[in-house]
């Protein structure tokens, strides 16, 4: 088990990585799923043998409120159907923490419940916000869970210039679920989970 990292350099490196993902040209992405709420693309990850996913959709609300529903805090558990528990293990400053959370089984439990310990950081980006995270090897793994690992991932949320009450939400996710899983099952689950994330978030914001 590693000790907790120094948050400042990790936060800076994480932000730079996400900004780099955000500048990847359209030609490198392949569409994985399209719904009325979001489009999901993917490309091979540079971090592990799976994919880096990009999800994007317009959400009707202001940037701060959307990010408050996504980042670690009281809202997330209320609406995110995949997340089953969340504990803040350590808070470094207002926008920086380490959290442990668990996810429900997926695909008729082919994918068993997972546990993650993530460093989370929220910062300003252009006229909006970036909330990003990366998994840490920290804390004991609880029984009945497989410990998954999130490579650098995050959500950019910026107001639409011609419609300030709407925001463009763009996510980059690369999750290594670990355990003995067929890659095709993981890929199917990831695309659907990201598309559902947008529809669930929109319902929560309207509630």
Automatic annotation (TrEMBL):
GO cellular component, one term: endoplasmic reticulum
Source organism of this protein record: Cardinalis cardinalis
Gene Ontology BP, a term: intracellular cholesterol transport
InterPro entries on file: StarD4, START-like_dom_sf, START_lipid-bd_dom
Domain of life: Eukaryota
Transmembrane segments: none
Domain START: start-end pairs: 10-207
MF GO annotations: cholesterol binding; cholesterol transfer activity
Protein name: STAR4 protein
């Amino acid at each position: 088990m590693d000790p907790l990292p120094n948050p400042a350099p990790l936060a800076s490196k994480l932000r730079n990585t996400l900004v780099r993902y955000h500048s990847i040209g359209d030609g490198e992405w392949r569409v994985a799923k399209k719904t009325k709420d979001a489009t999901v693309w993917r490309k091979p990850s540079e971090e592990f043998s799976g994919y880096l996913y990009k999800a994007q959709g317009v959400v009707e609300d202001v940037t701060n409120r959307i990010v408050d529903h996504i980042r670690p805090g009281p809202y997330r558990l209320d609406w995110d159907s995949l997340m089953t528990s969340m504990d803040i293990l350590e808070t470094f400053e207002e926008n920086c923490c380490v959290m442990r959370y668990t996810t429900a089984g997926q695909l008729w439990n082919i994918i068993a419940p997972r546990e993650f310990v993530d460093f989370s950081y929220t910062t300003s980006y252009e006229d909006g916000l970036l909330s990003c995270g990366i998994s840490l090897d920290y804390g004991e793994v609880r029984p009945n869970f497989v410990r998954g690992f999130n490579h650098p991932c995050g959500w950019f949320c910026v107001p639409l210039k011609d419609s300030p009450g709407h925001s463009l939400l763009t996510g980059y996710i690369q999750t290594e679920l670990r355990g003995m899983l067929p890659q095709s099952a993981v890929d199917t689950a990831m695309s659907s989970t990201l598309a559902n994330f947008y529809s669930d978030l929109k319902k929560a914001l309207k509630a």
